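Can you make up a polypeptide sequence alongside its tokenized fold?
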Amino acid sequence: MAHPDLHSFSLQAADTVPGSEPWVAMPYRDAPRFDAVTVLQHWRRLHVGHGMPPPAPGPLAEGWALYHSGEFELAANIGLRIGGEGLVLANQATAIYANYLEPREACRQALFKQVAERAASQVEEEPENWQALYWQAYALGRYSQGISVARALAQGLGSKVKGALERVIELQPRHAAAHVALAAFHAEVIDKVGALVGRMTYGVRAETAMALFQHGLELHPNSPGALMEYARGLLMLEGEARTAEATALYERAASLEPLDARERLDIELARAGLSD
């Protein structure tokens, strides 16, 4: 059964992204490349953080090959044309593109809202669709960061993100990315409103965040994105006392070999973070 707070929020006409504006291309030519055969051969490693079963050979596999190669717009379009099981590809490609590459803030936010709305519609029809729940939570979380965490909490978006991620973990206990995302939610809320208000009002706790981060990394120890989220969480929860450990986590993320285009983007962020 879906969490009671997980209902759709409507897009306004002004939030739609003009179709004539092409998405920004993947900037790194050294990102791994895949085709419909090799993406299935490497599927388990590529999806260790989500535990999603592989698609059958065919157009959907081709779409996933494009996604993992950094062709996010083409992948999203294929997923939308396929519909059904293709929507997770469309949502993932759109959300990852928006988070890492879209430079226009209004378009970025509109893309997150589109993903959240599509995923919420899926959840209404399939309450146990953990993939839709995860991408709903991801998109709402990133949208919330764009408008400020404090404002998002005031609008009630925090309970939607928390409820969706908790439900994903109930349905798919080995979903590493959901553990890390929920940990980051706990840490960000505590950072913004304090431990006492966070616990009493939003049900977040520092010890829960730490346990979730650690379990997420046990499930997917070589995720550069998870390593950086853990580093940021340590600093939000415990401040400068954890700077050395946070730096070590960034160094570990920066030293990894990327499995796909998204990891290539994460590794570049880790390198940039170390140079700041």
Summary: Residues 1-20 have pLDDT under 50 and may be disordered. DSSP finds 15 helices and no strands in the chain. The longest helix spans residues 105-125.
